[in-house]
Amino acid sequence: MDEQAAAPAGWYDDPHGQHAMRYWDGSAWTEHVSDGAAADDPSSTTSSSSTTTTLPDRPPEVLATVGEPAYEWSPKVTTTAKLLSKRARENARAGKVLRVFVGSRGIAITGPVRLAKNAGEEAGGDVAAAWDDVLAVWQDVTVHSVNGAYQYTDYTYTIRFRDGHIRKLTSTLRDAKASSKPLPVTTPGTAAPITVEQLGRIIQGQVTPRVFNDAVERVNRGEAVAFGTLRVDLQTIGNGEETLPWHDVEDVKIRQGVISVKKADKWRAWEKVTVPSVPNVFAFLELVTAIRQLHARQT
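and the corresponding structure tokens:
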């Protein structure tokens, strides 16, 4: 955009209208986007400060709900107001900053956050819940590269709670080794800062075994368990239109963000769905593996 050519690098209202903010590198719009009240600096390898943060007094249930060890993730807020969206500037002036706390017992989200699609557009309402009350997590992780050279990774986690709340957390990291970094050491009464990748790792690590155990109980009772458009029971896997007996399933795998269900003796996949469209995708994969192993032992 000609009117933007002289502007300094930073976060601005998304000119494409697809997200709250988009990053301008000083000469062109980039693929860095944010749907929260603030955004991480795309040139930074971490989305958190380097010091621990004392757990807040408001909401008072944070520590009791989250438990310890506790961790905190918060998007990096730029101090240059003109680089923020109008809504983000208003939130910044009011001292409203998105903060996500996770621990051994649960998760708490305070401050403004964009609600997930079809859940309304007005941000607000703190959420504090035990892990047993997190019903579903959608994960969308996209790695960007140019000519084979790694550039950055976009992370989006959409969380649905038992009480109906839905929250969407989005950020970007340039660190190619983010997934190999261990969680930081914590001290009592404080929340250690983590990256958005570490946040997602903790959330999935807590939610996946709970969803998997519940799914196992349900299929053992003869029920079908839905994971988006896919439905799984002890005898078949379905896609909403037809079912496929497990003895006809040759493979279920993920490749380039797509889950493929391959039917035996068929070249094309019987069904393909994108990973971001499948809630609790890791629980789904564990359940499929367990059922296929059960059938393999019976043959």
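(Above: one complete record from the training split.) The first helix runs from residue 62 to 66.
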